[in-house]
């Protein structure tokens, strides 16, 4: 300070220079101000710091964002104190703190250091970290920062940031969602590293746990379904003074961030030079099973097409006040250690939440089993680490909570659950009674009934009054024969039968499904559970119990069903009857023994059962069924939820589309029963629907294109197959344009398939998934293209595989826009089932 005049001019000069070059600088000194419109830019032009107004907000905030990708704010300083005018400045205050000042030098926000700093300088680093340090310190290691923005995370975890616990100060670093997309103030959702014996990552809604990963197993948070090891590496570090989570990317060409949205979804977003915006690599929770404890205690949640809850072996569903929800499974045998018990191994489930557990890291699996068996309250055990072939002993006491099936990649952390050695065998007698005694007893009455029926048949014009489902078989065999429809003439052959949709008594439907028992449950569709029903002659039917508290009147509902029942095509599942009684709405369908297409396609143990010819047959069948819905049926149905799990397979592997017409029946608020917090199967949704809610036959064509690719390749659209594209469509496009479409097939199929045919199918699929609906062919074009070998095919435009442009949300809450669309044109609703 020996030469004040010089110092003054010097700092003036620096100040002027600083203002002039503010676009190029990455540092702030006490003499520099960053005002509205000015920016700090990190040295490699990756991040920028400045003032911004999110969305429609009229307030200003100081934030850091990616320079290359628009609208991606990763950090906000003054989340709680918005700036109301354009006069705020960022500078370094007298005590060396980084401060945001208003017009009258009032402090809006401060880095809030308690200790004095001599020569402070703040710098925006290429990692997105804004750091405050001593100017002349030669020590540039991370620990030497006086303050850093990485220590105060907003809603985004960047590479290099840490989440977790400082054990010395007890301080926790975690992500907090924005309140809304326009308001960065802290919202209700947080994403934290929770230490409960072992570290987990959990999303909280206020203080309520919304979703958790499995415990850290040395490699990953158990049950991470995606093998992400080629993109990034998750890291948990447990040191004396801290336990933290962070991650590293393997590719410097890829930008990556983990973000918690205002709606509570945590997404991993990826951007690389070739993409037009952020790609959603991963969203959690993205199905019901990922909601914490969704199925209740001692129950496994599996995502087939939707969430399915199933009691663990040895447990049964407890009915509370005759309600099945909230669920809880209780031991089916009397008490611990009384019956003989053993452990069964589950390879494919996420470890239960660590509610009441013990951990001994020095025990091996064998000692663990012995220890668990000794203690009557021990319900399960597992290795705590998977590294080095597995080690450590985790034992669970009491109820097992938050268990879900993992599909696909699993990192090999089996759990052993205690079950009774054998189930009591008292059910057999009952069955003998049902199978042998009951039919004989009913026979006379049955014949009388049949004669009565025949007499009355002529009088039936509309809905029949309640019939007995158990005795439906005779009627049905007549009906199917007289009504076998031929392709493309749905209305032409209206026989007397097809104006009649039989209606069954609830009692008989209940009897056919063993009182809607869990054993009879086939699955949980978007509209409610589906059960297998058995008629007296052993014939099976599928019983769909619609889970809606309907706003639609019964009469309208029946009329709607009558219309749907008239849609008959060999590639549509037949609606055989219904039951509307005591507030229940139940639909009876023909039973499809081979389950659904996804049951075969995506299961590594079954996919080989689908040969090339079968796949061709399935594709052609789906195309015909869809063509009928779009073009030839009286109703012009848009399916809206076409996906592999909605394609059922009969005993000859003929495909039949199911759930068509459901959108017609379920307009309006009835959806909400099921879509409270559902995240879409966006893999099948056309961009105009996913982004703008627009729906037309062309959106079905898009879904068909996806289905076609999935059927040929046995790969899910939503998987990641190469580094350049983030789903199957992109992958297929890349290979196809290099003339390598062949590589999409498994080696076994490559031998079977004809090259021309495969190429034609892939081309048709790519035509179907073009971004613009107008470019996509109609179903009749599609059918002619896939059946006519000599058709010349147009050259597809690049597929619409970047739905998640600009990181847009793909999570659908029942928004007003959806219900609006529904009432406008009557048939615009899709049910989005989680997967
Ligand atoms: C600036 O901030 C101070 C203290 O927070 C406050 O009293 C003052 O009213 C603010 N001035 C303006 C113009 O907002
Ligand atoms: C600043 O720090 C002090 C103590 O270190 C604390 O009491 C105060 O709440 C902090 N202020 C802000 C705005 O964080
Ligand atoms: C730099 O600072 C850190 C933290 O204060 C310290 O641990 C480290 O030893 C210092 N390095 C040097 C070279 O002084
Ligand atoms: C946050 O939670 C409070 C109650 O805990 C609730 O009133 C408020 O609506 C919630 N806000 C959002 C955006 O969900
Ligand atoms: C979060 O909790 C609030 C009540 O505190 C509830 O209204 C809201 O639906 C919850 N949100 C989610 C996504 O669970
Ligand atoms: C996960 O992927 C990596 C790279 O693709 C591979 O090396 C590794 O074996 C895979 N791990 C498993 C368990 O499949
Ligand atoms: C449950 O239902 C049965 C028969 O339907 C009835 O007798 C019983 O009282 C019900 N229990 C409760 C708690 O509502
Ligand atoms: C952990 O297991 C080892 C080996 O069985 C045993 O010696 C040790 O006492 C156990 N530790 C605890 C805390 O139970
Ligand atoms: C079984 O384990 C629980 C929980 O660790 C413990 O409290 C209890 O004493 C154990 N019982 C026996 C018999 O070892």
TrEMBL record:
It comes from the Eukaryota. Residues 337-420 form the Apple domain. GO terms for biological process: recognition of pollen. Residues 516-793 form the Protein kinase domain. It is found in: Cell membrane. It catalyses: L-seryl-[protein] + ATP = O-phospho-L-seryl-[protein] + ADP + H(+); L-threonyl-[protein] + ATP = O-phospho-L-threonyl-[protein] + ADP + H(+). This is Receptor-like serine/threonine-protein kinase. It comes from Citrus clementina. The lineage of its organism: Eukaryota, Viridiplantae, Streptophyta, Embryophyta, Tracheophyta.
């Amino acid at each position: 300070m020996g030469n004040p005049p010089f110092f003054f001019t010097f700092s003036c000069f620096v100040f002027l220079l600083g203002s002039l070059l503010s676009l190029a600088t990455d540092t702030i000194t006490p003499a520099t101000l960053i005002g509205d419109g000015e920016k700090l830019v990190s040295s490699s032009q990756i991040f920028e710091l400045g003032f911004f107004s999110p969305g429609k907000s009229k307030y200003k905030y100081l934030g850091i964002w990616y320079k290359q990708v628009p609208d991606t704010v990763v950090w906000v300083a003054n989340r709680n104190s918005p700036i109301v005018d354009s006069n705020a400045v960022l500078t370094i205050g007298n005590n060396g703190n980084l401060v945001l000042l208003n017009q009258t030098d009032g402090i809006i926000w401060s880095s809030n250091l308690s200790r004095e700093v001599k020569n402070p300088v703040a710098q925006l680093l290429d990692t997105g970290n804004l750091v405050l340090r001593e100017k002349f310190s030669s020590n540039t290691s991370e620990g030497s920062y006086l303050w850093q923005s990485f220590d105060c995370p907003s809603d985004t975890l960047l590479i290099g940031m840490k989440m977790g616990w400082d054990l010395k100060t007890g301080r926790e670093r975690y992500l907090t969602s924005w309140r809304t997309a326009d308001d960065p103030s802290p919202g209700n959702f947080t994403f934290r590293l929770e230490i409960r014996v072992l570290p987990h990552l959990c999303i909280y809604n206020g203080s309520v746990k919304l979703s958790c990963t499995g415990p850290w197993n040395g490699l990953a948070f158990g049950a991470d379904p995606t093998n992400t090891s080629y993109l990034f590496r998750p890291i948990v570090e447990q040191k004396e003074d801290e336990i933290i989570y962070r991650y590293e990317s393997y590719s410097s060409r890829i930008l990556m961030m983990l973000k918690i949205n205002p709606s509570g979804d945590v997404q991993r977003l990826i951007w690389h030079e070739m993409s037009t915006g952020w790609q959603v690599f991963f969203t959690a929770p993205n199905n019901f099973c990922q909601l914490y404890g969704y199925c209740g205690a001692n129950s496994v949640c599996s995502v087939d097409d939707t969430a399915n809850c199933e009691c663990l072996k040895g447990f049964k569903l407890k009915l509370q006040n005759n309600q099945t929800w909230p669920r809880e499974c209780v031991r089916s045998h009397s008490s611990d250690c009384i019956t003989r018990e053993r452990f069964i191994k589950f390879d494919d489930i996420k470890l239960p939440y660590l509610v009441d557990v013990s951990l001994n890291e020095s025990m091996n699996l064998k000692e663990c089993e012995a220890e668990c068996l000794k203690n009557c309250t021990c319900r399960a055990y597992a290795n705590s680490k998977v590294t080095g072939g597995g080690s450590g002993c985790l034992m669970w006491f009491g109820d097992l909570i938050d268990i879900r099936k993992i599909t696909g990649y699993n990192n090999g952390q089996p759990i052993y659950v205690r079950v009774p050695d054998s189930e009591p065998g008292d059910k057999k007698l009952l069955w003998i009674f049902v199978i042998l005694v009951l039919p004989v007893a009913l026979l006379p009455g049955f014949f009388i009934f049949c004669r009565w029926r025949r007499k009355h048949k002529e009088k039936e014009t509309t809905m029949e009054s309640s019939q007995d489902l158990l005795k439906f078989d005779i009627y049905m065999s007549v009906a199917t024969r007289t009504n076998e429809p031929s392709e493309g003439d749905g209305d032409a052959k209206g026989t007397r039968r097809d104006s009649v949709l039989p209606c069954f008594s609830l009692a008989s439907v209940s009897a056919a499904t063993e009182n809607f028992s869990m054993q009879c449950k086939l699955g949980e569709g978007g509209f409610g559970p589906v059960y297998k029903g058995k008629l007296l002659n052993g014939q099976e039917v599928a019983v769909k119990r619609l889970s809606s508290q309907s706003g639609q009147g019964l009469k309208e509902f029946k009329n709607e069903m009558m219309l749907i029942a008239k849609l008959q095509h060999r590639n549509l599942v037949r609606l055989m009857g219904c039951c509307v009684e005591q507030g229940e709405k139940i639909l009876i369908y023909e039973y499809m023994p081979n389950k659904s297409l996804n049951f075969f396609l995506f299961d590594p143990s079954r996919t080989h059962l689908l040969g090339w010819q079968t796949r061709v047959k399935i594709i052609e069948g789906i195309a015909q069924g869809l063509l009928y819905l779009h073009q030839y049926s009286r109703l012009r149905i848009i399916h809206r939820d076409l996906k592999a799990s909605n394609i059922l397979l009969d005993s000859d592997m003929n495909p039949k589309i199911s759930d068509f017409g459901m959108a017609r029946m379920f307009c309006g608020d009835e959806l909400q029963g099921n879509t409270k917090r559902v995240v879409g199967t966006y893999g099948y949704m056309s961009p105009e629907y996913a982004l703008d809610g627009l729906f037309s036959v062309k959106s079905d064509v898009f879904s068909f294109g996806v289905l076609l690719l999935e059927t040929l390749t046995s790969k899910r659209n939503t998987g990641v197959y190469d580094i350049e594209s983030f789903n199957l469509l992109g992958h297929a496009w890349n290979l196809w344009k290099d003339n390598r479409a062949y590589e999409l097939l498994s080696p076994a199929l490559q031998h079977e398939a004809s090259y021309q045919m495969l190429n034609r199918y892939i081309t048709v699929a790519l035509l179907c998934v073009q971004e613009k609906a107008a470019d996509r062919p109609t179903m009749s074009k599609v059918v002619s293209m896939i059946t006519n070998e000599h058709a010349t095919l147009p050259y597809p435009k690049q597929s619409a595989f970047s739905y998640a442009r600009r990181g847009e949300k793909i999570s659908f809450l029942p928004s007003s826009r959806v219900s609006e669309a529904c009432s406008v044109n009557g048939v615009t609703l899709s049910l989005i089932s989680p997967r």
